[in-house]
């Protein structure tokens, strides 16, 4: 991260080294240090990324005498599912994960007729302190490692491939970094995890970069760094207000990088990649859902390569923040469309299962 970003997680012991933390060359070096031939690293990666298998005792193409040591060196257990809860007739499944040090975070698997999307966490907790967000209210515990991010995908893909999710066997097609945490406050590991997800098997999972969305509240230097990577991932800006006065309250990092700066960085990303920017906007009753704010947002976005994703707020129990009235939502959509701005209202899922990020982890604590 650039030096001016100071959203560091508290220092803790590091997760065990894992194959997904390493490049193919680094994996080979670990294997040869064990006295094995370098190609064993590729075999392990083929099992993990290609067959979604982490248990070296089942890997019969490895020497029986080496399986345990190879597993300890490159495929340690990183995540343990605490519980799975489902709704939407089983088409939505939230998983609460426990890491090696006991920290907890969540992922959500959402099955649609034409795709399967996994929402992953990049941090345990979040340091952005947005008042309407359950995760933000719990604070930041630590950054997740590259492998902890990737293993959410591999573990969920394994369950899906084995038919353990409603709808029969399937494959994950889309990844969204919209779970717990601010992805670009952990940008190095997030970018590494995107490479693991999108590199072809056996280097990675082989998911298309265009199927990956990275969200941010607007850390401008990190957006610029992402732009320089020239990836084909979609950038999502969690805007939530078009005016600085309100956004300073809803998204406190706005006191550092204002709306105009965030959007300028987003337009530079769109120009460099040719990819449309998704502008995320949680509609909050009587807070940011006024018609005049829809007009202001429309004026800011008109003529740019952008799409607004309106999100009916998934309320946190006991919070004053709640979803907009249906008539106000409809008027907000109408006003944006009148400015020629494409807009969709997100198909909200998971309200019956503490669907907002952080609710399940908080309840477990």
TrEMBL record:
Reaction proceeds by a ping-pong mechanism involving intermediate methylation of a conserved cysteine residue. Binds 1 [4Fe-4S] cluster. The cluster is coordinated with 3 cysteines and an exchangeable S-adenosyl-L-methionine. It is found in: Cytoplasm. One of its GO terms (molecular function) is 4 iron, 4 sulfur cluster binding. One of its GO terms (cellular component) is cytoplasm. It is an enzyme of class 2 (transferase). PANTHER family: 23S RRNA METHYLTRANSFERASE, RADICAL SAM CORE DOMAIN-CONTAINING PROTEIN. This is Probable dual-specificity RNA methyltransferase RlmN. Keywords: 4Fe-4S, Cytoplasm, Disulfide bond, Iron, Iron-sulfur, Metal-binding, Methyltransferase, rRNA processing, S-adenosyl-L-methionine, Transferase, tRNA processing. GO terms for biological process: rRNA base methylation; tRNA methylation. S-adenosyl-L-methionine binds at residues 181-182, 215, 238-240, 314. [4Fe-4S] cluster binds at residues 126, 130, 133. Coiled coil: none annotated. SMART domains: Elp3.
């Amino acid at each position: 991260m650039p030096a001016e970003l100071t959203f560091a997680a508290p220092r803790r012991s590091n997760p065990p080294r894992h194959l997904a933390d390493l490049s193919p060359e680094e994996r080979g070096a670990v294997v040869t240090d064990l006295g094995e031939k370098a190609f064993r690293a590729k075999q392990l990666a083929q099992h993990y990324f290609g067959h979604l298998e982490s248990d070296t005792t089942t890997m019969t193409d490895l020497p029986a005498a080496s399986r345990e040591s190879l597993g300890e060196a490159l495929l340690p257990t990183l995540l343990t599912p605490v519980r799975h809860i489902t709704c939407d007739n089983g088409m939505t499944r939230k998983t609460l994960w426990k890491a090696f040090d006991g920290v907890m975070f969540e992922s959500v698997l959402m099955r649609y007729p034409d795709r399967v999307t996994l929402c992953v966490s990049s941090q345990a907790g979040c340091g952005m302190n947005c008042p309407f967000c359950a995760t933000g209210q719990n604070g930041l515990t630590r950054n997740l490692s590259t492998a902890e991010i990737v293993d959410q995908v591999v573990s969920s893909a394994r369950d899906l491939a084995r038919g353990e999710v409603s709808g029969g066997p399937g494959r994950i097609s889309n990844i969204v970094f919209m779970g717990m945490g601010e992805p670009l406050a952990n940008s190095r590991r997030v970018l590494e995890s995107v490479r693991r997800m999108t590199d072809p098997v056996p280097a990675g999972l082989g998911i298309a970069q265009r199927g990956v969305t990275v969200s941010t509240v607007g850390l401008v230097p990190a957006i610029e760094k992402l732009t320089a990577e020239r990836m084909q991932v979609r950038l999502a800006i969690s805007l939530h207000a078009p005016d600085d006065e309100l956004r300073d309250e809803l998204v406190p990092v706005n006191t550092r990088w204002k709306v105009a700066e965030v959007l300028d960085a987003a337009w530079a990303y769109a120009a460099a990649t040719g990819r449309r920017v998704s502008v995320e906007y949680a509609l909050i009753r009587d807070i940011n859902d006024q018609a005049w704010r829809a007009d202001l947002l429309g004026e800011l976005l008109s003529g740019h390569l952008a799409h607004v994703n309106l999100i009916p707020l998934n309320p946190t129990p006991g919070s004053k923040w709640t979803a907009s009235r249906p008539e106000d939502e409809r008027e907000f959509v109408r006003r944006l469309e009148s400015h020629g701005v494409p807009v969709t209202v997100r198909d909200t899922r998971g309200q019956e299962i503490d669907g907002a990020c952080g609710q399940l982890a908080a309840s477990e604590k």
